[in-house]
Specification:
By secondary structure, the protein is an alpha/beta fold. Helix content is 37%, strand content 24%. α6 (217-223) crosses α7, α8 (282-295) runs antiparallel to α9 and α9 (300-314) packs across α10 (326-339). The protein starts with a helix and ends with a helix.
Amino acid sequence: MDDQRLDKILEAFRGVSLAIVGDFFLDKYLEIDPALREVSLETGLDARQVVRIRTYPGAAGTVVNNLVALGVGHIFAIGFTGAEGQGFDLRRGLGQPGVDLTDLIEASDRLTPAYVKPLVVEADKPPRELERLDVKNRSPLPRPLEDQIVARLESRLETCDGLIVADQVEQANCGVITDRMREKIAELGERWPNKILFADSRCRIGLFRNAIVKANTNEAADALGFGDLYAPPEMLGRELSRRTGRPVCVTMSAAGVVASDGENLHYIPGHTVEGPIDIVGAGDSLTAGMVSALCAGASLAEAALIGNLVASITIQQIGVTGTASPDQVRQRFREYRERFAELCRKI
């Protein structure tokens, strides 16, 4: 891949139409100033003083933010939020140009999933995160709500170039990606084999079929039942691809990614960056870059490289849900090409 080819792919993002189905979380940061510490008159315990609140869409919302930053033309969010304040904050964060929230259902009987992150902020010191507060639904997704989401997914995908599945909730059937939803995704993948269906799952990646899947080495090994046995990423990619019937991307943190279609393997080395990093959301940003590129006509190897570049940019953004613009991707590609010139000529 050269600059001209990268430009062609990035410019095609504007014509791409993508749906994202899954778990939309709110990332909520509470900045605490320890110098303002008070003692509660009622309990005698410390009352931490919040001086700033920042909110960002998380999980599937992180993918949406990255797609927006990359310039994808049409983005459709499919899932639910609660009807409380956190749902309002999440919808406000997602409400950007090009993002359609018609299929993001407001459910009064469900909580808006959230990661609440208290941060101690002091002058001349890096922020220090305290114990995180997680808000999740612990009961199965109600059948009527599941019916609505399944129907909206099927209808929306008819006119979209591709679908991203973001399975974030670890408790089985308590999030959007239920057993029934996975069956529907497999059915849609069989019905539309030329559409890009791409799944990312925290703990159930091995259950997806007829969709491209992304997993880190531990997730891939668990999905294949290898336990603690070491398996080369190349083997993991080939075997997962054989089971899913679609290509696979195996991520290896700073070492890069292996992309496999069951026959051909592509190793894309990671791009080492200097200074502090924050890997939260890196996988979501890789997903956004890779799927956008595939829908824009990139090959599997080209898409894996672009996803890798996007992730290398977002991890340098500390304390926020990072994104990458097309111009940043172009600049990072120039830096990457200087290190891996021969590889880029082969991609």
